Amino acid sequence: MEFWLSFNNGEEKLRLPVPPSSFEMQTGSTNTTVNLNDVGEINLIGKRRLKAISLASYFPIQDDGLCQYRDFPKPQKCVEMIEKWRDSGRPIRLIITGDSLTINEAMAIESFNYSQKHGPQDIYYSLELKEYRFLNFKATESASNALLKKIVGDTRPTEKEPNKTYTVRAGDTLLTIAKSQYGDTSKKDKLMEKNGIVDENQLPPGKVLVL
Q: HSE-up of 121 (CA within 13 Å, CB side)?
């Protein structure tokens, strides 16, 4: 089984010289347990959680018989590569290939710990990775806006559907009529044009305006 880490669409790659003896890909769902008075506990199935995996092995200073290939990078070089990728703020890709299993996942480096022991200058490490999801921000923003409108309502001003006519009352002005009938005082000019009004102050009560 081969373990590969790659960065920036394969621009930089690291094949682990000594593969981890085992690994476990952790996954699950964001389920929620709710207690209903008449029913008891029910389980609401949520979306899938991010996958997570822990790898542990060592970077050998020389071939000790457990290395999968020759001419592997020095331990210090391996550490520097992983630290650079971690500090870039960008995801890496984990590729695991075997006879019965293939894993190819974009991952974020959650933690990277390493140490040395007495004896050879091998560097022992543990690497914790968590799945990285690439988001379509345009689609995400549209979904967020739709959810916000559902919660608080659409706050954009909407034009009212006016009646076909309006009978002027005492105290009415073109501004107040435009506001009450259209929801927009700027429609005053529309009223004047439709009704042939030259002087906006000439609004005798009882006059019927076409809207």
A: 6
